[in-house]
Amino acid sequence: MFHGHRIVVVMPAYNAAKTIEKTYREIPLDLVDDVLVTDDASGDKTVEVAQQLGLRTIVHKQNRGYGGNQKTCYTEALRLGADVIIMLHPDYQYTPTLLPAMIGLITDGPFDVVLGSRVLGGRALSGGMPIYKYVANRCLTLVENWLLGAKLSEYHTGYRAFSRRVLESLPLLENSDDFVFDNQMLAQILLGGFEIGEVSCPAAYFEEASSINFRRSVRYGFGVIKVSLQGFLHRKGLIRSRLFDPNGRRLDPQSGSENISVFPVP
Questions:
Q1: HEC secondary structure over 208-241
Q2: How far apart are CA 216 and CA 220, in angstroms?
Q3: Engineered SS bond to 129: which of 7, 90, 124, 190, CB 3.0-4.6 Å?
Q4: Which residues of 157-182 are buried (b: 16+ CB within 10 A; e: fewer)?
Q5: Strand 160-163 relative to strand 113-117: parallel, antiparallel, unpaired?
Q6: CB 16 within 8 A of CB 91
Q7: SS3 label, residue 43
Q8: How far apart (Å, rounded) are the C-alpha atoms in residues 14 and 43?
Q9: Distance separating alpha carbons of residues 253 and 169, to the nearest angstrom
């Protein structure tokens, strides 16, 4: 518990056997009530390592994609009674030492969502972010800020903390199961009127850190622009998009899950 709030860290994993232990060891467990790993049908020993660490683990029998994995993460976190949910990639690309600051900015206000920004503070390139990714990140963020009426430093971080109210309110089941899920979610948060804060997060790029290839990056970029345009047209009242429908399909922690295996804490 942190100031009376139940804290759950979720780690959407895919082939993270080499880095998940290092990531877990730096989580401030005195502040965190549960650490949940959701494995998206990895081909390595991610599940075995997670179980050796004594972590609550959910395994997709078939790969559901990055967005699909997050849907499972957040549904289970809500089922566990989380008040604050932090998504932390198990590839050690983001430092767990920022968790106390991110948690506090939600539990003690004034934010509903907190992002770990690799751009804020100007250390993305020194941390190893490829130049083409940095340029694409900055250009896409500029376009997104203009279309969505925001002033975020980065939309493409995988380090995010949410209040329970945010995850219960958003129509997340309307979103993609692919990487563009992240941007759809942020657009929903902004158009939903939630407050977003950012903290500077060091970037860490190395061989074991997960990353999408150039072709998928291009596909992702076009998907981001499409989502931003949908958000712009929706907030101007020119279209009605299902992504921003308050009555859209939401996560249901009471529902059963198909095609997954659940390994509780030993």
A1: CCCCCCHHHHHHHHHHHHHHHHHHHHHHCCCCCC
A2: 6
A3: 124
A4: bbbbbbbbebbebbbbebbbebbbbb
A5: antiparallel
A6: yes
A7: coil
A8: 8
A9: 13
Cα dihedral sign, 147-148-152-155: negative
Tell me the CATH architecture of domain 7-249.
Alpha-Beta Complex (3.90)
Domain boundaries, the chain: 7-249
Q: What is d(CA 162, CA 54) in angstroms, rounded to the nearest whole number?
A: 24
pLDDT tens for the chain, 266 residues long, are 788 999 999 999 999 999 999 999 999 999 999 999 999 999 999 999 999 999 999 999 999 999 999 999 999 999 999 999 999 999 999 999 999 999 999 999 899 999 999 999 887 887 778 888 889 999 999 999 999 999 999 999 999 999 999 999 999 999 999 999 999 999 999 999 999 999 999 877 766 555 667 778 889 999 999 999 999 999 999 999 999 999 999 999 987 666 677 776 76
Which residue shows structure tokens 């076009």?
Answer: 222
Is 56 in contact with 166 (CB distance < 8 Å)? Answer: no
